[in-house]
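Chain entry —
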Amino acid sequence: MHPSGRLAFRRQVRSPRADALPLYEAHGRALSWEGILPPGDGPLECEIGCGKGGFLLAAASSRPGIRFLGVEAGPSYAAYCADRLARRGLRNAVLVADDARLFLADTVPPGAFVRIHVYYPDPWPKRRHRKRRFFQPGIAPLLHHALATGGELLIATDATAYFGEILALMGASPLFRRDPEREAELGLEVPGLAFGPTNFSAKSRAAGEPAWRAVYRALPANPEEDDRR
């Protein structure tokens, strides 16, 4: 049972055989924040839902001065991605096998990340599965807690209906402001920086699916703080 009172996803996460990989597993408990960080003192970025690791590998290899922390709910995918990082000798990125909502709630300290990436999250289209979605009521405060003030939340999806629901959810939060100028600057994809590449983005383009993108800025929790700047 998670401290929030909800049955924790972590109970279902089985340990892959990956002792030598840059991989950390929750095993039903909150992780030690200092114990899971990549070495160095560069800024931190987070990718939620890394899948096979296309974006994380591109980001870590093209921006060696940045540290990356990937969170992937599927232990086999997390291990696969961590193995790809290890094979390329990329020491500025690590994987965490955990439910991202729980990880944000009980492990990440305030303002830890300068940027959070959420690309092609599972839309869980069946109504009975909606509670499994990452973007649902209560997620905006968790994301805001994890982002530094002014930090970016980047979102990409090909699921039109889900994207509309994400916009409504984030637009209702006083903690974030959408940044259309930044969206225009980044375009559809800047490999290793914004919106991809991912396995799903490649499939989506090949199938001619729509490409929906959004960038949100984390606002000061106290509006008076913004007025003083």
User: Anything to note?
Assistant: The longest strand covers residues 147-157.
